[in-house]
Amino acid sequence: MAVNAEFEGRSYPPTDPYAVPAERISAFATAVGADDPVHHDESAARSAGHAGVVAPPTFAVVVAQQCDAQLVSDPEAGVDFTRVVHGEQTFTHHRPIVAGDEIVGVLHVDKVRQAGGHAMVTTRSELSTASGDPVCTASSTIVVRGEQ
Amino acid sequence: MALDLLHVRPGLELPRRTVHVDWERLVAYAEASGDHNPIHQDEEFAHSVGLPDVIAHGMWTMGAAVVLVADWAGDPTAVVSYGTRFVNPVVVPATGGADVEVSGVVTKVDEETGRVTVELSVTCDGTKVLGRAVAVVQAPVPVP
User: Fold this and answer.
1) Is the pTM for the entire model greater than 0.90?
2) Which DSSP string do the residues of B69-88 spell out, in sequence order?
3) Which end of chain A has fewer beta carbons closer than 10 Å to its terminal beta carbon, N or C?
4) How far is B143 from chain A (nearest CA, A)?
């Protein structure tokens, strides 16, 4: 089944607010080898002027992939998850994500195109606080490999 | 310590580093990120889809590589944008794991805005794994 080109331009309703746990930030930072104390130690983060421990630059993917899941699990979209390869990813931060933030994401399907039997889908997750302050724009391009 | 723009010029090389990855680390990343795709944890599954072995999450590699920039800047929140293409997988054998080599060079300095562009080179076993990996760092703007 091919990716539904009519999904280009579509947006999804905001995700449920995700309350960012300090433990999750610390575990994520440890897994990528980020040992700056601002990721792990609340007092270090506060001394640096933050309200809680600070997320590493790619942590926003935790929320962005919850946004993307709406598209991938949408039967009408025709995205076969077993054939998906991550092609590109960008993050533009509007302000740091810190523990205790409540983040909501709105998924936009920016582009659907076919190339050489494969489909390339570019999505954009606009992450903001529950009160509407912009936090991060995360853009992802997935390649859905065609049937052999 | 924050970046001092006076000492940052295009061509400046960041101190390179090697990041080791093994299965334990991939399981930790899967748990922390919520990405439980079996190609990153299950050898048999990876083989069944034609991969030589388990591969690292592209997002793990992207996240591990930018630590070089965050540490150089002295502040992970100074990284205001970061993007890459995933050009080759990092194959992680069960024994011994894999080493990812990360280096970076300053390609642009905007003295008015304090924005410094760093291009990263990320390889594993001599093969480029990230393409066009570019991070932009916000440095404090010097007071004239």
Assistant:
1) yes
2) HHHHHT-GGGEEEEEEEE-S
3) C
4) 21
Q: Distance between the two ends of chain B, CA-based, in angstroms? A: 20
Out of A24, A57, A65, whose CB is closest to B79?
Answer: A57
Sorted by where each starts, the structural domains of chain B and their CATH numbers stand as: 5-138 (3.10.129.10)
Do B32 and A90 make contact, defined as CB atoms within 8 angstroms?
Answer: no
pLDDT at A121 over 80: yes
Enumerate the domain spans of chain A. Answer: 5-20+59-144
Residue B91's contacts (CB-CB under 8 Å, 6 or more residues apart) are B51, B52, B53, B54, B55, B98, B124
Instruction: Dig out the tokens for B45 from the structure.
Output: 């599954």
Q: Do B29 and A32 touch (CB under 8 A)?
A: yes
- CATH number of A5-20+59-144: 3.30.300.30, 3.40.50.2300, 3.10.129.10, 3.90.660.10? 3.10.129.10
Which candidate, B80, B79, B106, places its Cα nearest to that of B5?
A: B106
pLDDT value for A81: 81
Q: How far is CA B17 from the centre of its chain?
A: 11
Tens of pLDDT, residue by residue over A106-118, are 999 999 998 888 9
Secondary structure E strands in A29-130:
84-93, 102-115, 118-129
Contact A92 B80 (CB under 8 A): yes
What SS3 class is residue A60? coil
Using DSSP, state whether B116 is helix, strand or coil: strand
The answer to whether the CB of B54 falls within 8 A of the CB of B40 is yes
**Measured distance CA(A86)–CA(A9) in Å, rounded:** 20
* Pairwise CB contact (< 8 Å): A96 & B77: yes
